[in-house]
Design goal:
The protein is of the alpha/beta class. Helix content is about 20%, strand content about 40%. It is built from two helices and seven strands; from the N terminus they run E-H-E-E-E-E-E-E-H. Strands 2-3-4-1-5-7-6 form a seven-stranded mixed β-sheet.
Length: about 110
């Protein structure tokens, strides 16, 4: 199965979590306080990250969460947009690498 991955920048994680939880009808699967939040719905893998650069609401990258992905890969499309392709366990490893103290296992 494939889910669209959408990664956005924010400067206010708390407000974004409240707003997007309401829009998606569920709480995030993971919150790293003041830094990152991840929602995994049946259709969408959405992450928001505090960039601290005033770029709130901008696209960081797109991608596919795909069960059959053998590795985490990236490429750039004709519009200069970064696309990632990964399985849930690859994203979990990326999260653990970025925040070693965070406990996260994707719900399968």
């Amino acid at each position: 199965m494939r889910k669209l991955h959408l990664a956005l920048a924010t400067t206010d994680i708390e407000a974004t979590v409240r707003d997007y939880s309401s829009r998606l009808g569920q709480e995030p699967d993971l919150i790293v306080p003041q830094t990152y939040a991840l929602w995994r719905t049946e259709q969408l893998n959405l992450s928001v990250r505090n960039t601290g650069s005033g770029e709130s609401g901008t696209l960081r990258h797109l991608g596919w969460e795909a069960d059959d992905a053998e590795a985490f890969t990236c490429d750039v499309d004709c519009n200069g947009i970064l696309w990632e392709r990964f399985a849930p366990e690859h994203q979990a490893k990326e999260i653990k690498d970025a925040w070693p103290d965070v406990e996260y296992e994707p719900k399968v």
